[in-house]
């Protein structure tokens, strides 16, 4: 609870200017033995919200880094931001470099990931294919830079690199069709003007899309051009004005030169077209920095793969992600509606007391649905490409093409597991919370008929507070102290699982021992019912049958009555569910994890305080023993004086001893023989029911014998008086 109370203050302190500043540029994908390796900085994973990616690629020394620098300065207003560009003949950029501009810095609806690519022709042929494939698969918009004119040679370069997709897709037309539907990026060809081919510069930019389509439709190299049209379903081309030498030198130092203003304006036109293309694909963007990093790893694993059909696996993975995003949007919309429905039930229960039982069950179902919406719509969930469920589903899909099997495989994801965990947590937390809230309300001077309504209202307020605190919790969880707080919360949950599991196991073993001890007593009850007519009549009554219809016959002995295990089971299940949720969202966490770990920590402290209190008060004596010992002491004190006086007045008189006759001795021996036969039969029956008699079972046997002797003693007295 203390953690929750300090969340807003810590969020305000931790949310500095670093959250609104650009992250990077830094290496995101590097070369490792001719293979690409995703190495995103940790600062990128701190982002929460949609992240749109645009990659700028092309030949070396065409101005990719310079254009990205101008875009960043235009969006953020920071003239000191510079994408590193090589000032020699050797390229500085290796692999892929990225800079993420947070939405707070740009004013956009999403974070912007600007990706700078190494020159495509600086590496060997295989590395070219892998680098180009990564440039195509990572972003939603691909900017390809050329010089002066889109000609066949450049189109051949573009198509030759695109041939890598034929290997990845195993030349499958169906794979290319699915690729164009879910993965094909929007292509923007930027023609860097180094010659005055179109006359005077146009400040509004030149649209060269018709020139691009004409080049793609011209005769020659038909297969290459068809491949480009297959990969890039939507495309356009724009002109970038010439950047004079004086303006290039000024741009490197962060100074705006007059000669470079036309270049900047044309670059802003291309930037606006890029942002518009990203807005149209905002639904397919990764929803957090963690998801962006996972997408980088999935793409790198695909382009490095030597297996045929690697692209099909990535396409299937993208389809799963698309389904998960659509479901998250539906759950986000449903959270507010279900919360309003729960509030309506709270108001209705205040005026319709006769419907309280049914409203309570409906509120329980609504609370479960609320938990599913809250967890299922979480942006912290990630679905890796190489997960166990995904590998199994890919194996099944290659052998079974049935629609229902494909749908089942699409459902096997982290979102499905999150929905199951949410259902369990919602079902278990409702009785725990309502019980505690009813106890709190009983301490207040409120009418009893309004308790149910107030409990539901408090649940609505609790859910609303979790949503309001979510943003503050995100600022704290994604900050520098997030890992430490996650470790402390996970530690409290693990300790809660151990404590509740031990308590549950102890109660189960104790119940098993009580059941075994009571078996002999229940077995001897048969003889008592056969000998005593009053007991037999009692078993035939309606009250007897009603009682044992509602209560188990195993708990008929109060000394061996079993204890309930539902509370320990519920507490163990909810702590385990929170641990599973922490595993799904690792290394980040949300308001539910913070509230759950704080609640479990407080409960553990409460249990520790109760244990210390018993140890302090006590010597291990239970309440029943204290009560019995108190009664004995009071009775001894009250009867001490009258017994002493009576002892002084009268001496004890010994009863007369009457000798037994032969008939009495014979009758007593017959009764003793009958008793021994009954004891042997009872022992044989007990061996069938249990093999390990305990001390409690021995005490139960003794009680049964005493009861049998008490039944036989009146018969002996009657026979003795008749003989006398």
Automatic annotation (TrEMBL):
Show the stretches that span the lipid bilayer.
335-355, 362-381, 454-473, 485-505
Q: Name one Pfam family in it.
A: GBP
Q: Mark out the compositionally biased spans (Acidic residues).
A: 631-640
- Report residue spans for region: Disordered: 629-652
**Signal peptide: which range, if any?**
1-18
Provide the alphabetized UniProt keywords.
Membrane, Signal, Transmembrane, Transmembrane helix
Q: Which GO terms describe its molecular function?
A: GTP binding; GTPase activity
Output the Gene3D superfamilies linked to this UniProt entry.
P-loop containing nucleotide triphosphate hydrolases (3.40.50.300)
Ranges of residues in domain Guanylate-binding protein N-terminal: 51-169
Known InterPro entries for this protein?
A: Guanylate-bd_N, P-loop_NTPase
Q: Which domain of life is it from?
A: Eukaryota
Name this protein carries in UniProt: Guanylate-binding protein N-terminal domain-containing protein
């Amino acid at each position: 609870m203390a953690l929750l109370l300090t969340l807003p203050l810590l969020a305000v302190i931790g949310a500095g200017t670093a959250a609104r500043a650009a992250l990077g540029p830094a290496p995101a994908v590097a070369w490792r033995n001719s293979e690409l390796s995703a190495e995103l900085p940790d600062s990128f994973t701190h982002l929460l919200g949609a992240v749109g990616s645009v990659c700028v690629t092309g030949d070396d020394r065409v101005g990719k880094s310079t254009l990205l620098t101008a875009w960043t300065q235009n969006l953020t207003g920071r003239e000191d931001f510079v994408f590193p560009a090589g000032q020699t003949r050797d390229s500085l950029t290796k692999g892929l470099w990225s800079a993420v501009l947070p939405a707070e810095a740009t004013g956009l609806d999403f974070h912007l990931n600007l990706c700078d690519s190494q020159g495509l022709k600086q590496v060997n042929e295989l590395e070219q294919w892998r680098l180009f494939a990564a440039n195509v698969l990572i972003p939603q918009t691909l900017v390809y830079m050329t010089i002066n004119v889109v000609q066949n040679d450049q189109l051949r370069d573009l198509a030759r690199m695109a041939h890598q997709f034929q290997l990845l897709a195993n030349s499958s037309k169906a794979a290319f069709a699915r690729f164009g539907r879910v993965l094909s990026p929007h292509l923007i060809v930027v023609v860097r003007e180094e010659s005055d081919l179109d006359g005077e510069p146009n400040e509004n930019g030149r649209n060269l899309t018709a020139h691009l389509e004409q080049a793609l439709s011209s005769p020659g190299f038909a297969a290459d051009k068809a491949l480009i049209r297959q990969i890039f379903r939507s495309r356009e081309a724009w002109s970038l004005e010439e950047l004079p030498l004086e303006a290039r030198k000024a741009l490197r130092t962060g100074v705006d030169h007059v000669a470079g203003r036309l270049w900047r304006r044309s670059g802003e036109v291309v930037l606006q077209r890029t942002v518009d293309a990203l807005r149209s694909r905002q639904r397919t963007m990764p929803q957090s920095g963690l998801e962006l990093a996972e997408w980088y790893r999935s793409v790198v694993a695909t382009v490095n793969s030597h297996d045929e059909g690697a692209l099909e696996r990535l396409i299937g993975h993208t389809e799963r992600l698309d389904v998960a995003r659509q479901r998250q949007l539906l759950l986000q919309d449903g959270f507010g509606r279900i919360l309003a429905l729960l509030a309506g039930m709270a108001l209705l229960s205040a005026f319709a007391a006769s419907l309280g039982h049914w409203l309570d069950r409906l509120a329980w179902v609504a609370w479960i649905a609320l938990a599913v919406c809250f967890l299922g719509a979480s942006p912290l969930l990630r679905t890796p490409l190489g997960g166990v469920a995904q590998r199994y589903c890919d194996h099944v899909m290659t052998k079974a093409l049935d629609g229902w099997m494909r749908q089942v495989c699409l459902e096997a994801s982290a979102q499905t597991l999150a929905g199951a965990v949410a259902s369990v947590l919602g079902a278990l937390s409702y009785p725990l919370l309502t019980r505690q809230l009813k106890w709190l309300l009983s301490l207040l001077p409120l009418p009893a008929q309004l308790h149910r309504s107030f409990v539901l209202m408090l649940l609505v307020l609790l859910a609303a507070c979790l949503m309001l605190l979510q943003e503050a919790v995100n600022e704290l969880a994604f900050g520098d102290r997030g890992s430490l707080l996650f470790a402390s919360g996970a530690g409290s949950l693990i300790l809660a699982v151990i404590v509740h599991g031990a308590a549950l196991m102890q109660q189960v073993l104790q119940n098993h021992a009580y059941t075994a001890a009571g078996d002999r007593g229940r077995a001897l009850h048969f003889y008592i019912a056969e000998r005593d007519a009053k007991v037999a009549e009692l078993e035939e009554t309606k009250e007897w049958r009603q009682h044992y219809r509602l209560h188990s016959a195993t708990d008929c002995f109060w000394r061996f009555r079993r204890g309930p295990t539902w509370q320990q089971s519920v507490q163990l299940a909810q702590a385990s569910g929170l641990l599973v949720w922490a595993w799904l969202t690792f290394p980040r966490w949300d308001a539910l994890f913070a509230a759950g770990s704080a609640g479990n920590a407080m409960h553990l402290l409460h249990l520790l305080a109760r244990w210390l209190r018993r140890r302090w008060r006590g010597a291990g004596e239970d309440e029943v023993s204290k009560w019995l010992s108190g009664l004995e002491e009071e009775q001894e004190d009250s009867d001490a004086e009258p017994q002493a006086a009576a002892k002084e007045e009268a001496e004890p008189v010994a009863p007369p001893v009457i000798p037994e006759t032969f008939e009495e001795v014979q009758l007593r021996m017959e009764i003793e023989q009958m008793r021994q036969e009954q004891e042997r039969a009872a022992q044989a029956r007990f061996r069938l029911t249990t093999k390990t008699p305990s001390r409690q079972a021995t005490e139960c046997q003794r009680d049964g014998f005493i009861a049998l002797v008490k039944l036989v003693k009146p018969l002996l007295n009657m026979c003795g008086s008749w003989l006398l």
